[in-house]
Design brief:
Layout: H1 3-10, E1 16-21, E2 25-30, E3 33-41, E4 44-50, H2 53-59, E5 65-67, E6 78-81, H3 89-105, H4 109-115
Antiparallel strand pairs: 1-2, 2-3, 3-4, 4-6, 5-6
Length: 127
Amino acid sequence: MDREAFNSFCATFPAAEHVVQWGNSDVWKAGGKLFAVCGWADGRDAFTFKAGDIAFEVLQERPGVRPAPYLASRGMKWLQQFADNGLTDAELKEQITLSYQMVTAGLSKRKRAELGIPDPQPGPDGR
């Protein structure tokens, strides 16, 4: 995935907002909450997203994926794909989608309704 494809994909989410900050990084938020970033790592595009507990442990073992600089060092579960051999485009899109869902699930029901964000879907365990 390149930066243009990343931005096009992130723009498809309800209430997604794009800002450029942190040294020309493309930052995507929903309801004021960060869900994805495309910045630079060693002169290449790097994609950062929030991860669930299991994904955080498993995916960081893949080549080209690491705990996100700054965010993960603060104890948050964020990963960064920094090399082409990390995730496939489909896997990266899935992780960005899950990041968006986790972030927006933390918004109040009222805020989600105001923004047109669907209510979170229960997981396989019914939660």
